[in-house]
Structure formats: C-alpha cells, structure tokens
Amino acid sequence: MTVEIEIIAAGRLPRLEDRPLEKRIGLIILATDHTTEVDFQRMVAGDRLGVYVSRIHYANPVTPENLLRMQPSLTEGAALILPEEALDAIVYSCTSASVVIGDRNIEAAIHAAKPGVPVVTPTAAAVTGLKALGARRISVLTPYTIETSRPMADYFSDLGFEIDRFTCLGLTDDREMARIAPDEILAFARQALAPQSDALFISCTAVRAAEVAARIEAAIGKPVVTSNLATAWACLRLCGDDRARPELGQLMTKPYREG
Hints:
alpha/beta; Iso_Racemase_Enz_sf; 11 helices; 4-stranded parallel β-sheet; Ectoine utilization protein EutA; plasmid
C-alpha cells in the first residue's frame, strides 16, 4: 500500500547570491589532457575561486598541422563554459598550439563567445612570467619533436629572448607526455639548463612539471617557469589573489604585469 506523503511548498523563494563563488576561471583543454585540471585544482581552485572546464577535440600525433586544426573549436569550447555568464579569465591550455595558432587569434576566437574576458595562453603567460623574473637569457625544455619545437624557439626568439639551449624529448603523443615521471622531468631539467641562462622554461600543459617546479629550482639554482605554473599564476593574479606561494616556485612570489 502506497502512503501519500504531503509535500509542503515553502512560504517564500530563497535569496540568491550573484555568484556561487566570487571568481570563476574557464579552462579550454584538449580531450586528451590528463594534467591541466589536476594542476588548476591544486594551485588555483578554492573557496572563493571556481575552475570550470570545457574539452575540445584533439587527435594525436602532436604536429603543427594537428595543433592548428583545433582553432575552429575554440569559440564553441568557450561558449560551453557557463553559457551567458561572465568569467574572470579563460585559459586555452595548449602551449604548442598557442604558438601555431597565435595568441591574438586565440583571443579573437574566445572573444567571439565570451566578449571582454581576459584570455590567457601558456605562451603569453610564460613570457610575462619570465619578464617578471627578470629573465632575458633562457633555456627551454619541451617534450615535442624538433618539428614541433621549431615554431616555439622562433616565438621566444622573436619576442627578444636569447635562447642559450633548447632541448626536446621527441614525443608525439600528449598522453605519453603526461606520463613522464616527475623524477625524469627533474633529471632532464638539470641537463636542459645552460649555465649562463637566467631561467628555464618547461613547455607543455600535459607535462607534470608544475608539481616539481620548486624542486627543480632547488636543484639548478635558477627560476623555473612551466606552462601550467604560468597560466595558474596569471589567473590567480587576474582574480586579485596576490599571495606569495614560494612552495610552488619563484614565479608564485611575483606580481603580474601584462605587456
């Protein structure tokens, strides 16, 4: 026998806040990405700051041609993050594609869906971070092939950085890049740094370099910027979080100044 349960309507509607969380950051990441969400939950998300993710199609191998194919998906990816609601920043989390597509083209594609939102790319954030650290001469470590690394070398060189040493690991699958053991990242970072460089940049949002950035700095005695460390730092600063967090690396002690 079914007993009818009385359901009572409340006498008023609840009071609504403007936002569930004070600040919100959007992430556009590759369908194959294992690392960005984890890094942002660890370094960025908190009681006042939410991280909201949209994944877009990507097919390996990592080549300039395959990276460029993501450009048409950027507007739709941005539109799917809290539709019709404002974001405080939005990240396109692919370093090599940011070079191939171009920072300005990425910004335009995202603004087609989210007008006016600050757009963060790993490349632009890394440049800003390196400048904040006072680095002019740099060494670079990437997981890519020489073919995919070449446009990145040109990108930093064209922006006025002197590249003392550029090392690539020759991988073509971003899922394998995510599986590089942290101790291996540290070992390759030691080899990648030229003694005369002011800082080391470790590229690729798939590589778990941000979690060992401080360990690498302790080992090499120079500042380290990684793709996810740079975008996390930029997003925190854009959202008004100016806390110094040296345990994450020297970059997280610096203010953020665009341009």
